[in-house]
Amino acid sequence: MAAPTIWFEGTVTKFIAYFRVSTERQGKSGLGLAAQHRKISDFVTRAGTLIAEFCDVQSGKDDSRIELQRAIQLARRENAKIVIARLDRFSRRVSFIASILDQGIGLVCAEMPNATDFQLHIFAALAQEERRLISERTKAALAEAKRRGKILGLNGQYLAAKNRKAADEFASQLRAKLDADVLRRSYSEIARHLNDAGITTVTGRKFYPQTVKNYLSRETGEARPSVPRPSDQLG
After folding, report:
1. 14-128 has which CATH code?
2. Are the CB atoms for 24 and 30 separated by under 8 Å?
3. What is the full per-residue pLDDT of the chain (235 aa) written as tens digits?
4. Taking the CB of residue 174, how many other CB atoms lie within 10 A of it?
5. Could you tell me which of 204, 196, 190 has the C-alpha nearest to residue 232?
């Protein structure tokens, strides 16, 4: 991985921005990142100079994040402070935050820039405890709902049943489009026939031998007897 671009070197306070979002979708859409950029930019404009930026698209539970480790190494080497929009963007564990501060690496939270190291410890501990309590309350509520006979996951079961019905209907329609001669061919040949005819799966994708087998087995209730051929193997 290429070394980070360092934009400025001087005597003013140097900052390294660290951003984090939890999902690939957030990373691509910019949701969450835009707010973090805005908070950090507003702070650095008044407090010093930004020399580098790092961003991870990963859960905050993992403190071995690659870009986070690179930010820490650069901060140590350049005697710079790491600036984050919110404390939970850096880590969700008090022990990790404490270890960074104990190493003498400056950590600044843009939404509370005047917080001391001691206060950061307190805020991190409170946040960690709140997450623990939320988890306990959620587990207790689910256990109570289950005790009362409530069936959990009904929405997922409904969607699964709906998808099965759609797949069954499509399988029936697919078999109706294939004459007896085509149905006697190998799964690879049937897949090629369907793709050449411009017919796609229920999700709009091309057919593969295994896809054909799955649909025909679904419609008939059992797999069509056949001798496996090399051409029927998925690549």
Report:
1. 3.40.50.1390
2. no
3. 444 544 444 468 999 999 998 876 555 555 478 889 999 999 999 999 999 999 988 887 788 889 999 999 999 999 999 999 999 899 888 899 999 999 999 999 999 999 999 999 898 898 888 888 888 888 888 888 777 777 666 665 666 677 777 778 888 888 888 888 888 888 888 988 888 888 888 777 888 888 888 888 875 544 444 434 444 444 4
4. 20
5. 190
The alpha-helical segments, DSSP class H, found in the chain are 24-29, 33-47, 66-78, 87-90, 94-102, 117-147, 154-177, 180-183, 187-196, 209-220
Residue boundaries of the structural domains of the chain: 14-128, 156-232
Cβ atoms of 64 and 88 closer than 8 Å? no
Q: How far is CA 143 from the centre of its chain?
A: 27
